[in-house]
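INFO batch 0412 | record 1 of 1 | parsing
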Amino acid sequence: MKIKNVITLLDDLAPLYYAESYDNVGLLVGDAEADLTGILITHDTLPEVVDEAVEKGANFIVSFHPIIFSGLKKITGKSYIERSIIKAIKNDVAIFAIHTALDVNWNGVNDIILKKLNAVINKSILIPSANTIKKLSTYVPVNYTDDVLKLLFKAGAGSIGNYTDCSFSTNGKGTYKGNEFSDPVIGEKGILNIEDETNIIVTFPAHKQGDVLRALLKSHPYEEVAYEIITLENNNQHIGLGMVGELEEEVDEVEFLTFLKQALPTKCIRHSKLLGKKIKRIAVLGGSGSSATKNAISAGADIFISADFKYHDFYGAEDKLIIADIGHFESEQFIKDLLFEHLSKKITKFAVNLSEINSNPINYF
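INFO prediction complete | emitting tokens
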């Protein structure tokens, strides 16, 4: 098995296509064609994490946070970032980051938080991603419609929420006349042909466009395939930042904060003022989420759980909900387990290791 094969497995879990534009995900250091010797899963790639990978015989580090986030002009070992990169290159260790690709995933970071809090009723995306749904329209001879649809569905087209094999078809007359260089499958060159055709319309996730087009061209009988692909403005209800879920029964806010502190767990919760209201509807956003407070309010949340709020950010609660800052690392602490479980099910020949190093840079006194 090569490193690139593991990257494919990670993309199956959380397609990198949907990572936030500001992010730096994917293979950051190393050769994807290298043979895999082992995997080390970590939250952050520190120099000591690279040492740990070498000690465990792992030449592929799967990190949640990217070790390279902004541009580097020099790599001289003066920062922990540069030291990590130098060590990785010297020891032929590849580094991969998944970060916001997992943040926006339906079964990713925020789903874990809601499950830990038993708030999985009426689960929805807090900030749905735009421009991630596409629509294909094509024209197929009536007798070939079923074959084309079959391959399109297999490629991932026609998936809407909990449903698959979704399409819409209408029949009509198509016309074409091939020039002297044409080789028509149906009809003759130079003669106008009128064909009974089906207009097939399917939607598909944006990251599946290549697969869908290959399926279309493979299954379509015509020499020249007429089709159009457009990006829809519909919000994606299964991809986006943050999530909202509900408890089975509402609870007192102090009782909930006590439960929150134990369930995740965290040593400290910084929060806006209590409102004397019950908690039932919960908004969460793993990592830095202060910019999403208005979204949480619009979603009707009773509490918004995230991290990295500054002093004035807490005023944003506007007495409409409680802001609970549980800490950046604490909101993402279960990600390693998610990645470990996913890869362990897929890879049996090689050892998949969890890093034993606590990379949380924040300590509490």
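INFO post-check: The first helix runs from residue 3 to 13.
INFO record closed
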